[in-house]
Amino acid sequence: MAAVAPTLTLERRLLKEHSLVIACDEVGRGALAGPVAVGAVAADAAFCRRRIPEGLRDSKLIGEPRRAGIAERARAWVPAHAVGWASAAEVDDVGIIRALGLAAVRAIEGLGAQGVDIDDALVILDGNHDYITPVSAVGRGVRPVIKADRDCASASAASVIAKVSRDEYMSGLDGDAPVYGWSRNKGYASAEHRAAIETHGLSAHHRASWAIASAPTLF
After folding, report:
1. Feature table: binding site for a divalent metal cation
2. CA 21/CA 10 separation, integer angstroms
3. Which residue numbers belong to the known binding site?
């Protein structure tokens, strides 16, 4: 059965009370190597009158050959977008949840650097846990929404933009350490990646604090 297309229903409702909504979604949380990334998309009332790009979905529901094209359409559709990053070293230093918060704050600040008035925005955060507020110096509202990346078109756009950006980054790292196959597994726990770790050990891009040896093979 085909995935249900996301809508702007929640965004329109929230924009009756807020001048701006920012949707955030993360990628790379479960990877063994590489950074985590959080996409952020600005949504205002004018944006919510635009037609949602064809094929836009949560990035996990889009096949890899189609993701780049859909991400390009998403970037052209939204008023502003940004991707924030937290490195593998930061994941090791502060833990995955705080690293996600740092990446999200950097993404939101990236919107601010483009002229978006972020101070009074309400943030839609995919998931059930607010990891932004504990690391944010700005007291903006954050609303965790389960399956926002599936149901809310702005969060779907943030998801696919972040996913394509991180995949491109990991493919770029492949030339530094081709034995790990990052252009194919993007740092996740494939059988190829795990075998390379057993043979060659960890690189500087791995999350050394993780129990990598016992991590489940994802694909």
Report:
1. 25-26, 126
2. 10
3. 25-26, 126
